[in-house]
Every structure is written in structure tokens, then in C-alpha cells.
DNA sequence: TCAACTCGCACCTTTGAACAGG
DNA sequence: ACCTGTTCAAAGGTGCGAGTTG
């Protein structure tokens, strides 16, 4: 189970491709904007991937989180995004756990995996488990695959991370770019009502003439949001998820493959990394380029930032230090939530029945680099009407802003605003990005603030 | 003053309970 | 009693634009 050599080897052949890549690229070309709202908004296009190379009978967990593209805040200036200053302190880092997790490789590979129910919010106090983002900031999703029999043994497992440059987006509370608006209306079935201009006009004209009957009906039907999170009450659009692959796909950048645990694992990881690359079929586009990064786990940057120095081989000792002791050597400072939605095929159900509110009290995150406390993985699982809920044994610590976050946010980030390209959007030079883990983050600082998990709580 | 944000709206799709018929 | 197909209310997803906020 733990990250032994076989484990690494097994995981090393996993490939991920992005469904609807054409659609994503269409949005990316204009500069994708994702609406974020207080109650939470789904993504559109939503994340949907195909997986290959998994061991059919081995169980895997799929996760998604969002990481900032850079350390800037943006503003919409007429027809382009301009840098508006430094990024705000990052909100609580949350990770979306695919509701099918854990499931065997055969399950993941038999059909496209949709993250349709993933919701984005700008409410830093959100208790529904949505992924919290800042408006006017740029993010992109990361997909994590963990071979693990259950949610509790994730900490022992190897994470493989995939990214797709075209999925980067700017979080907004209201659309800025009318091109994006139009593109979304044209492609999103839920916005169908906005496609017909005539209908639109009529709607506007009727706005002041609210049908009293309808109002009464609405008053009777619209109820306060139940504590169990409305978006989890139902799964009305499951049919989206079962669609057969039909669109052009693009393979993801395997960004990281690492074990948070013993040195032996890392060494294996290292060797696999180097030996794996030749396995890549030639001619494959850059998205599937294996990241030939130094063996000291790809999450080094996190630690670099936390210590503010020594992004050197010293890190390897840090990683290995946790080795046989069974403790992670990662020094993750951020609280990490994992949000999910009602499980559909999961074989391991979390025992806790309800969605636990995220406690406001949480040890201050000043314990950076302190192994005993670094944060918590917050599994905010809601399953209204059913036995959804929080993984009972997990801590549910919630610290919207750690002390050091508030004080030192983005500090040490060397990227100057001038580096921001004239074009408001991400570089499309994927080859370059691939070399740099898929992103133009010469500034590892912000990456360090987005650990996937805080292992100390697993 | 103004950009960013919130809120209520109309319109839409999908689900699933209720029901009818075989 | 069971299965299948249909109907329809409810849930909730969507962007718009007026109003609010900082």
C-alpha cells in the first residue's frame, strides 16, 4: 500500500487527457473567466478528464485543487486584463475529492471523469466545501491521482499531478469580457435562455411586471438553504458525466509524482521519473511530457517558500527525515480542505454522517516548519439526505488566513509586474510551460502556499 | 467616483416521484 | 405484484442588470 517501488512503478504509467479540449482552448484563447459567487458556482467548461494506464484492480482517489497562476491581482481594462497589484492573501486551500473516490482503476478508465459538481466560491467563510478563490485572480486546476485503498491511507500514497494549461482562468464575480459571455451562453445548456435575443428583450421588458401568482408560488417553494448544502441535495445533471468521449482530447502535463513519505520512495520516484520519460511516445504533444524534475519531490517549492530560503538539496534531507519514522517531512503550512459531493460508487464511505461546520478555531498557522502542527486536511463532504459528511477521524480545522499568510503573502515573489505579458492571458507556449511544471511560475513562492495536503493530520 | 460585488430575476435543463397502463 | 413509459413539480444552474459597497 505504501509507496514502495512497485507502487511508484504502477503509478508511473498513468496518463490523463482533457476532455473537451477544443472547448477549453476556445475559452483559453479569449481568456477564460470563471464566475465565482458566494453560494458557489460550477465551472464552465467543467473539468473532465480521461485516464489511462491505471492498474484496473487497484484503487485510486482523484482530487482537484486550484492554484494561483501568479501573484497578481488583475483588473479588466476595456478589452484586456491588466495587473492591478499584488494578489490578496490566499483563501483557505481546498481540494475537491471526486465523489467516486476511491474506485478501482477500471472504473476511472472506463469513462471520462467529470468534475461537474466542483463549485467555486469567493466566500472565504464558505462551509459547503466549495473551492475558495479570489475574484480578479488567475488560477488553474490541478488534478491529482492517488493510488489508495481508502481515503485514510492517502497519506501513504504516491500523488501524481496533472495540469492542462488551457484550463487556466480568471476568477470573476461578473463577466468582464463579453466574448467570454457569448461563448459561455453559446455552449452552456443552462444559459440557453440567453441565446435568443428576442427572449432576452422580452425578459427585460417583463422584469418590472412580476407575475403575482408566480411570486406567490416562488415564495412558497423557495426555502432557505438547508444546512446540508443545496448543491449536494441532488445530482440533476449526472448525465453529463456519462457521455462517451467524443471530443478531441489533450493529454495533461504530469506535473508531479512524489511520495510524501520515506526516502526510499523518493529515490524510486526519482529513478522512475528518469526512466519513464523514454516511454513517452515520440510525437506526443507537450502536454504529456513527463516532468523531469529533481528527485526531491515536486513539492519542494512549498518548503522553499515556507523557509524562505535554501531551495537546495537540503530539502532532500528534510524529506527523508520523515522516512522511517512514518511522519511526513513536508512542512505544509496551509489548511487544506477536501470537498466532495455525494458518492456514487465509492466503496468506502466516510463514517461521519453529516457535513461538519468548519470550526473557526484552529491553531494559528505560525507553526510553519513545525512538524507537529502544520495544518489539516479538511474533508468537507456533504451528502444531504444521505449519509454524507465529514470523514470522522479527520480534523476540521479552518483558518481562512493563517498568520503568516496575512503578513507575508506573496512575499519573496520575485516576479515583477513587468513580466506580465501584454496579452492578458496565460502564455500558450506550452512547451515552455512544460519545462516549468506547466506554468510560468518562476516564482515558486506562490506554489509553496498551495500544498495539496497537510499530512500531519492524516 | 467607480470598480467590484451582491441580489433577485426569468428562463432553462434535469431529476425523480407519482401515476397509468400493460 | 412487477415492469415500463409518461407527466410534471421541484431543484438548481445560467447570465443580466439594478442596486450596494468600499
Q: Which terms would index this structure?
A:
globular, 458 residues, single chain, alpha+beta, 20% strand, 4-stranded antiparallel beta sheet, DNA-binding, 12 helices, 11-stranded mixed beta sheet, disordered C terminus
Low-confidence segments, given as residue ranges, are 1-11, 197-247, 259-335, 340-458
Could you tell me the strand content as a percent range? 15-25%
* Gyration radius, in Å: 22 Å
| 3D shape | globular
Order of helices and strands: HEHEEEEEEEHEEEEEEHHHEEHHHEEHHH
- Count of helical stretches: 12
What is the typical, i.e. mean, pLDDT? 57
Tell me the layout of helices and strands.
Layout: H1 5-12, E1 15-18, H2 21-30, E2 33-35, E3 41-42, E4 48-52, E5 59-77, E6 80-86, E7 93-97, E8 103-104, H3 105-110, E9 113-114, E10 119-121, E11 131-132, E12 137-147, E13 159-163, E14 169-172, H4 178-187, H5 197-206, H6 212-221, E15 250-251, E16 253-258, H7 263-276, H8 300-307, H9 314-321, E17 336-340, E18 377-381, H10 403-408, H11 430-435, H12 444-448
Parallel strand pairs: 2-14, 7-17, 10-11, 17-18
Antiparallel strand pairs: 1-4, 1-15, 3-10, 4-9, 5-6, 5-7, 5-8, 5-12, 12-13, 12-14, 13-16
Helix pairs in contact: 1-7
The structure holds a DNA duplex (22 and 22 nucleotides).
Description:
This protein is an alpha+beta fold and 458 residues long. 22% of the residues lie in helices and 20% in strands. It is built from twelve helices and 18 strands. The strands form three sheets. Strands 2, 5, 6, 7, 8, 12, 13, 14, 16, 17 and 18 form an eleven-stranded mixed β-sheet that branches. The protein has a four-stranded antiparallel β-sheet with strand order 9-4-1-15. It has a three-stranded mixed β-sheet with strand order 3-10-11, with no helix packed on it. A hairpin with a 2-residue loop joins strand 5 and strand 6. Helix 1 runs parallel beside helix 7. The longest helix is centred in the middle third of the chain and has 14 residues. It is globular. The two termini are 15 Å apart. The protein binds a DNA duplex (22 and 22 nucleotides) through strand 3, helix 4, helix 5 and helix 6.
